[in-house]
Amino acid sequence: MYDALSFRFRSVEADVYSIGDSLFVAHDFDKISAGRTLRSLYLEPLKEQIEKNNGSVYGDGKEFILLIDIKDDSIRSYELLDKILEEYKACLCVCENGKKQKGPIMPVVSGNRPFQYMKNEQVRHAGYDGRIDNLESGIPATLMPLVSDDWSSYFKWNGIGVMPKAEKKKLQELAAKSKINGYLLRFWATPDQTELQRKAVWSELKKAGVSIIGTDHLSELNVFLNSEN
Hints:
By secondary structure, the chain is an alpha/beta fold. It contains 7 helices and 10 strands. Helix 5 crosses helix 6.
């Protein structure tokens, strides 16, 4: 979280499990530790940033995306998440009766997502993370601001050598279709075994206009993005 903020990245992701009245941050259930909650590790630090920077995370008025990946029961965890986010609504892009109110943080629910439940809410504190199958669904961007999918489900290229023309065209088409429909696009599990692979894939993602590049190699991505500008 703090590394992402130090590089002024505009999105972070937290994997969560619900226990009692808290959402604990961990990729696997057996890695859960006391005190490591969504509140303490993400929401409170972001709130402090917003208070320090005149109403936005970086003081520039732009939205910050907080991806929340539900790892267990979708309804139970989402209901708990909704209660927690209600406490921070002054910091959020709240959606009421289909209309999005501007705010510094846009939470987006990924992983086990209760679509119908979220769709039926009159007041919603988080958006839904769609899939590429949803690109032409007509789901409004106020409900589904983000479309994410597994890289290997659509591409065989692993970042070694030149990206095949057909796959490059597919990537460009998906990025263009996302923008036309008002969605942000991202892929997870992109090839990242070596620095060479990572840079090759990041270059293609950036050239195609993919909205969000995800990685665990934060400093490396920061250097890449700054050297590309």
